[in-house]
TrEMBL record:
Pfam families: adh_short_C2 (PF13561). Transmembrane segments: none annotated. SUPFAM superfamilies: NAD(P)-binding Rossmann-fold domains (SSF51735). It comes from the Eukaryota. Keywords: NADP, Oxidoreductase. InterPro entries: DECR2-like, NAD(P)-bd_dom_sf, SDR_fam. Coiled coil: none annotated. One of its GO terms (cellular component) is peroxisome. Its EC number is 1.3.1.124. It catalyses: a (2E,4E)-dienoyl-CoA + NADPH + H(+) = a 4,5-saturated-(3E)-enoyl-CoA + NADP(+); a (2E,4Z)-dienoyl-CoA + NADPH + H(+) = a 4,5-saturated-(3E)-enoyl-CoA + NADP(+). Gene3D superfamilies: NAD(P)-binding Rossmann-like Domain. This is 2,4-dienoyl-CoA reductase [(3E)-enoyl-CoA-producing].
Amino acid sequence: MIVDENYAKNSSWKPDLFKGKVAFITGGSGTICKVQAKALVALGANAAIIGRNPDKAEAAAKEIASLRPGATVLGIGNVDVRSVQSIKHAADLAVSKLGKIDFVIAGAAGNFLADFNHLSSNAFKSVISIDLLGAFNTVKAVFPHLKKSQGCLLFVSATLQYTGIPLQTHASAAKAGIDAMSNNLAVEFGPLGIRVNCIAPGAIGGNGGDSNDSSMTEGMKRLGGAKIEQLPKEIPLQRLGTTTDIADATVWLFSPAASYVTGEIVVVDGGMWHSGLRT
Ligand code: HXC
């Protein structure tokens, strides 16, 4: 299934599951987070899409809003998650326009392949600053609003940090930090009524989820390497993941069906990392 204008009708979820809710999504113009946003909006939420590039944030907001008549989706560009002031400004703007924040996805990330010899200290710091510090800054910015709404926080990590993967020292370190931060904040925020979880996507293709799919994520094409063609048949569930797989897990974690779930890292990878496979 694709997260399109028929998602609310055809998915397993109630069409108005998130009516009246507001989502705040960093990295929301990117392939995976945009589809997470689409699912929330299709099921009734309004949203703020936060990004560095204002044109991309605006275009993503328009595309997401088109899924449901009456949806309000703001594109907030020129935001750098490495600056807590920048992301605080975005959170305040979102609340001034949308009234509140119930759901947060801290999804902004940057990555590239580099072996240790070609990974400068500044390159390592860049990825840590976007992925890990950026996720922390996002929580700093939205915390007062989430406390008020007793909302939910969702991090996006990966599975590469569970094994050792060449060329990904920087991203693995950042994603391991995100897993740890998610666990810690779940414990600290539980008594405040805020649930905190993390999704760890495996190898995610496009909506079709096979290696020939032209909509395969840019990240996958760029980071997947030469083995990408054989990968689907080696994954236990025999296919690449889809952006819809991540969106469905997101819907579950934000829904009342997960009201007793916090501090979980939900791996959505078709069983890939348990099988010892790695991209
Ligand atoms: C080695 C590199 C490099 C590369 C950048 N650097 N790309 N080093 N190999 N391919 C180094 C630069 O030389 C510089 O170090 C330092 O990193 C900072 O680079 P800048 O370009 O100045 O930084 P910035 O503009 O902040 O760029 C951020 C970036 C960039 C992450 C480095 O690659 C980027 O924005 N990428 C696009 C976003 C992206 O990839 N999104 C998809 C993420 S998917 P020096 O020493 O020269 O100053 C994802 C999923 C991960 O994250 C899960 C696992 C698969």
